[in-house]
Amino acid sequence: MPVTEKKKLDLDRKEIPKQLPEVRKHNFNEVALGYSAETAVAEAKRCIKCPKPKCVGNCPVEINIPGFIDAIAEKDFDKGIKILKQKNCLPAICGRVCPQEEQCEETCILQRKNGQIAIGRLERFLADWEATQGELKVPELPKSTGKKVAVIGGGPAGLTVAGDLIQLGHQVTIFEALHEMGGVLIYGIPEFRLPKAIVKREVDYLNKLGVNLVTNYVVGKTKTIDSLLEEYNAIFVGSGAGLPWFMNIPGENLNGVYSANEYLTRLNLMKGFLFPEYHTPVKNHKKVAVVGGGNVAMDCARSALRLGAESRIVYRRSREEMPARLEEIENAEEEGVIFDLLTLPLRYIGDENGWVKEMEIQKMELGEPDDSGRRRPVPIAGSEKIVPVDAVICAIGNSPNPLIAKTTPGLTIGKRGNIEADEETGKTSRDRIWAGGDVVTGAATVILAMGAGRKAARSIHEYLCSL
Amino acid sequence: MKFESVDEILDFAIGKEEEAAQFYIDLARKMAPPNMKEVFEEFAQEEKKHKEKLLLVKGGKKVLLTREKVMDLKIGDTLLAVDTTIDVSDITYQEALIIAMKAEKAAFKLYHDLAKTTKDSELKNLFLSLAQEEAKHKLRFEIEYDDNILIEG
Fold first, then answer.
1. The predicted structure's pLDDT at residue A1
2. pTM (2 d.p.)
3. Long-range contacts (CB closer than 8 Å, 24 or more residues apart) made by A267-273
4. Chain B interface, mutation test: which of A296, A322, A376, most B Cβ atoms within 10 Å?
5. Complex ipTM, two decimals?
């Protein structure tokens, strides 16, 4: 390439346009606006096409990343989305909520030069481009095998299993406890990070492929797994981690103290922010404290802000240790969420009507490294103080709902209530029952749940073919 | 409580470890889910190991260090106690760890307080050593709680 032309190349990672913080903190619309075709092509052209690309190995569902990036660089978006969908049936979702910086993008060789290739943004671009091309195209499916699979839970793991198995000719039914498919994608992740229309589009696609979708069906109540096994050849449990944890400190039963699950479900699934258009309101709090430091905590704090509250994160470790994606921490900071780091809630104090009005907090400091080298937070004596709040959202973690564990004899359950399943196959201790996603790992990421779903689908397919 | 000799104190401490093991065995029996039964059986095993260690000390085969610094994360201090006198059949792992942290803290406090009751330096040092042992046991549960419950994700 001539030197003069080389100088003109812009090798920097392309930023994604966003709504301005001052604007977006007052609405629930999506924050990141996506690449234009021109930007996507420019970003794709930065890829240096490594002979042994490390990005693929770091993707839990092993997407042919160089393949779809190359197609974008060639402006063949149709080819790109086809390559992407060979391994990922939910690209519009993964492009938005996957922690790419810890996975595919982490190993990009350009990381140390002009910034790693924006794989997630390109993935999102292709999926969004496809949505503008009219009806989603349904591939030709193989002849039905006549084998039936029940998938419990319509979240990312279940949707992946269903998408993979239907394309292998099996009959698949998803049983979802809520009135909408999508699991955490619908009830957990807010509209401003993942518009629900996108989830619905991906679910509709599965429906078009022939997946039978059953909502308002609580396995363990409506029917047990053992009854379903009388009708189905195999069962995949992907029922997620819907049981919220609390800290077990005084005052957690006061009104105005929510679990993150409840708060987000009220907003995202029940559309509380659109009351009275939707019938389940959410209280407009003035001073909201969100306890925790993960993505769920950021989602809660940013949602509270959008509802007009002064919103703060209360986190007992330092910023560096926050499990949330850096992008989400930065978004929250830009929007004006207050961060009380190295701070521990001790108790919540109520008013005469049983509503939370204050919380007692204590400052922490990082102690000496322990045997594992980790510096753990320890309280600073005498640093206790009382601050006013009218809502507290507890976002410290979740474990699986115990319903399936209690109603399925012989299923091995771990200490934290998780179903124990083989990491490579998703097989559980019971014949014909597989499991994957948060119900196995505890609350984790969408893509890890999808990866577990993919492995389980492979194993279920092998089993069904052996019958 | 009044103790006249090192052996008397060690016998008392060994008895306390036996009581603790029995407490967890009883809880394990009350658990409905097998996973929690296993958790309390593990806790009971740990108490039995503590007892074995004290037996070695009594037999002169092991020495307890008095001034070993043990980190105190104070995690259990601010948490509500779990009432084990009511139906605990569906207790969670979080609650199990709270029970254990509180029990170890109580044992630490007991020995710490007993150390104040004697002027005999040998006995005082032994009580303080036993308190440090309990602090170590508590730290083991605090770290487990910090790593597995306070994920804050």
1. 44
2. 0.89
3. A267/A190, A267/A303, A268/A186, A268/A187, A268/A188, A268/A189, A268/A190, A268/A191, A268/A196, A269/A178, A269/A180, A269/A186, A269/A187, A273/A28, A273/A303, A273/A306, A273/A307
4. A376
5. 0.85
